[in-house]
Every structure is written in structure tokens, then in C-alpha cells.
Design the sequence.
């Protein structure tokens, strides 16, 4: 027997399935959590769960989707059991998303520089993008992480997030718009800071 | 919503999506996580709490398991357990090969090395392919009763030795474990010679050389075993 109650064969198989996706899991966890340490804790628990459940993984199916599903469920468990952080996540995501979703025409939506959307998006650094992403409600953030960052198709993302495909599509659209709003706000804040304006 | 608004929205969405996709290109350092996982996996889990009616039998079970382990261990010793690949001995072999004190056969490919070794050791484990390496020489050696097939390789300007034995004859000594690309290696260092060891497919393999650990790991990662 090897570590964590697995036979050597199970552990070997688990490594073959799980290890190639460690970077994906860690990147996703980093965008969901506040600290590197917290992200590693989350991925460690996810990996150990996946290894224990390796017999449930069907060879040839999408290992990434399987692992991200475990990651998401682990994250939900964490939030449910951590009563000190109830404000971090609305578990269905819809309520948290609602206030921002009411911004049908967000402040920066018709900003002249947005005539060139590619250039506008390129003007933001990765760090700014991450800050904006992290400010979004968790289920919206999950949707953007899967659909846009990891380039999953809507059907696979719907399996991971356990919601209908239509919900994924609407969340993706709404999430991108919310992200642009946040970026626009960040851009304004940076300009104010550069010019020494008080908020 | 007007058509022009939809069009603008779609363009914005597409640009946002493409920008987000580039976040996936940012390198993620998984080394710390891999170390933690290796540590977590090395720890034996706490056994599940047994039902109350079973608890009394725990000492008896432990005694029975201990007895079985002793008997099994004795049988294994009698049958001949694998020798331990002592880092000191391997480092010495490395230096002997460098000093051309070993009787090596010049070869130019892994295929030729396998053929040359097979003439002296019919049951020799196959030397794995080493893409990108220049194959220089091979030889046979013995370590604590276990036969070894050695190949001298050159990667760019770096000289390394690839050592192959049968898993049943030789095993890695306990050491630091590193996981790279899903493969688990045991790392040892002796007198400036670094060794990256691994078991795979009934073979025990070791890549060794006077190189930094990360370079040897990168070389080990390119070997097809």
C-alpha cells in the first residue's frame, strides 16, 4: 500500500491523471482565493480527494473537467463550513451577481476608447485583470475561469458548475461585462491616483 | 437593444474573452504544491475509526499483522531482496567511467548500446531512448550483486550517465522525492554527483552527473521510460 490508503497501482494511476493538471488547478485556485497558501491548501485537498476517488474516474474522459468539479465542490465545502467568511460567496452566485447585473449600461460602456475593444483590453495588465476578476461574485468568476481562461466549451463548463448550458452563456456574457466595469473603475482609480485626486 | 449595440457588445465580449485567455499563459509555479503533495502522500493515513465492537480486536490484529510481516520479511530476505543503490557506490562508478577505468564499448545509439549489452547479458533491461542525447559509450557493472547497464550520454555539453537495472535486483535508497510532470523521482547527491532515480516498467533507472538537480531532472524528463 502506498500513501493515503491507495495501492501502488491506484497511486500511479492517480498521478498520471491528476499531475498533468496541477498547474491548471493551482491557477484556478489562485483566482478563487486570497492567498497563495490558501490556494495550495485548496488544491492539496482537491488532489487528495481525487486520488481517493481515482476508481471513479473513467479512463478517456475529460480529466480536467473531473478535477475542476472536485475543486469546485471542495471550495463550496470550505465556504459552507467556514462561517467566518459567509460574505465571500453566494453559493448559487445569482444573488451576488444581481446588483452588478442591473448595470445595463455600465459607466464605461460607451467610452470612446472602447471603439477598439482589443486595444482597450490590452491596456490592462495581468495584475489589473486579476484584481478585477477577483472582485466578481464567485460563480461568475468560475464561469469566466472555465470558459475564457481555460477555454472550456459551454457544455463542459456546465458539467463542472452543475448548471444548464444557458446559464453558463448568460453568466459568461454578464461576467465579461462586469469585468469590464471593474476594469474601467480600476482605470479611473489609477488615473485619480496618478493625478493626486482624492477618491 | 439595437443591432449596433449587439455588435459592439459581441466585439467587447470577444476581446474580453481573448484577454482572459492569455491569463492561462502565465506560468504557474507548482513546486511548493508538489513538495506538499509528496509530503502528504508519504504520510500514512490515520486508519479509519473502527466500529466499537471491532475495537477490542485491534491488538490481536496488530499482533497477527506483525507476525505475518516478520514471516514475509524473512521469506523475502531468503528469496533475495533488491540491493540498495548506494549513492556513494554510484558516484564512484560515475568517476571510474569518467576516468576511463571501466571497460566501455563505444556506441553511437541506444539501439547499439542495447545490442552491445545483450551480447554480455541476455536478460538485460532495455535502455530507454534518450531523445536529443548523443550516445557515447556503454558498459556493464555490478553493484552489491546487482548487474547494471551503464550508458554515457551527452546532452549539449553536459555529460551524464544513465544507469539501468532490473527493479527486482536494485532499488533506490530512501531519499528526497520530487514530482515532475507526473513522474516521481528520488534525488540523491554524493560528493558533487547528483542522482535522479526512478522505477518504471520493471526497471530501475538513474540519471547521474555533476550537474544541478534541475538540469538532471530536465534530462530525466526527456528519457522515454
Sequence:
Amino acid at each position: 500500500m502506498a500513501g493515503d490508503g491507495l495501492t501502488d497501482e491506484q497511486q500511479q494511476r492517480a498521478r498520471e491523471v491528476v499531475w498533468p493538471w496541477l498547474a491548471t488547478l493551482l491557477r484556478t485556485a489562485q483566482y478563487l482565493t486570497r492567498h497563495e497558501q490558501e490556494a495550495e491548501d485548496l488544491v492539496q485537498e482537491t488532489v487528495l480527494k481525487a486520488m481517493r476517488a481515482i476508481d471513479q474516474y473513467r479512463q478517456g474522459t475529460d480529466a480536467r473537467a473531473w478535477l475542476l468539479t472536485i475543486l469546485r465542490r471542495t471550495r463550496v465545502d470550505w465556504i459552507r463550513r467556514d462561517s467566518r467568511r459567509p460574505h465571500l460567496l453566494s453559493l448559487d452566485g445569482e444573488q451576488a451577481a444581481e446588483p452588478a447585473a442591473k448595470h445595463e449600461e455600465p459607466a464605461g460602456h460607451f467610452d470612446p476608447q472602447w471603439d477598439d475593444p482589443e486595444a482597450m483590453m490590452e491596456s490592462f495588465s495581468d495584475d489589473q485583470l486579476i484584481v478585477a476578476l477577483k472582485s466578481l461574485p464567485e460563480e461568475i468568476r468560475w464561469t469566466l475561469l472555465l470558459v475564457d481562461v481555460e477555454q472550456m466549451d459551454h457544455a463542459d463548463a456546465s458539467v463542472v458548475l452543475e448548471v444548464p448550458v444557458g446559464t453558463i452563456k448568460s453568466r459568461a456574457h454578464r461576467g465579461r461585462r462586469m469585468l469590464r466595469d471593474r476594469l474601467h473603475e480600476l482605470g479611473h482609480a489609477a488615473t485619480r491616483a496618478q493625478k493626486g485626486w482624492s477618491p | 437593444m439595437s443591432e449596433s449595440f449587439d455588435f459592439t457588445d459581441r466585439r467587447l465580449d470577444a476581446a474580453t474573452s481573448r484577454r482572459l485567455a492569455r491569463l492561462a499563459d502565465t506560468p504557474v509555479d507548482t513546486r511548493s504544491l508538489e513538495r506538499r503533495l509528496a509530503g502528504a502522500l508519504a504520510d500514512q493515513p490515520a486508519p479509519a475509526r473502527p466500529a466499537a465492537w471491532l475495537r477490542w480486536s485491534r491488538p490481536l490484529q496488530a499482533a497477527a499483522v506483525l507476525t505475518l510481516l516478520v514471516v514475509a520479511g524473512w521469506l523475502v530476505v531468503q528469496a533475495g531482496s533488491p540491493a540498495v543503490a548506494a549513492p556513494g557506490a554510484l558516484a564512484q562508478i560515475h568517476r571510474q567511467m569518467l576516468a576511463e577505468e571501466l571497460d566501455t564499448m563505444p556506441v553511437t545509439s541506444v539501439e547499439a548500446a542495447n545490442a552491445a549489452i545483450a551480447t554480455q547479458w541476455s536478460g538485460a533491461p532495455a535502455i530507454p531512448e534518450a531523445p536529443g542525447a548523443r550516445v557515447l559509450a556503454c558498459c556493464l557493472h555490478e553493484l552489491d550483486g546487482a548487474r547494471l547497464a551503464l550508458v554515457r550520454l551527452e546532452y549539449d555539453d553536459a555529460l551524464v550517465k544513465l544507469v539501468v537495472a532490473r527493479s527486482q535486483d536494485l532499488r533506490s535508497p530512501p531519499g528526497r522525492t520530487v514530482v515532475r510532470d507526473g513522474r516521481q523521482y528520488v534525488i540523491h547527491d554524493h560528493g558533487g554527483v547528483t542522482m535522479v532515480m526512478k522505477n518504471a516498467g520493471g526497471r530501475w533507472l538513474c540519471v547521474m552527473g555533476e550537474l544541478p538537480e534541475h538540469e538532471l531532472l530536465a534530462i530525466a524528463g526527456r528519457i522515454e521510460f
Summary: The radius of gyration of chain B is 25 Å. The first helix of chain B runs from residue 3 to 21.
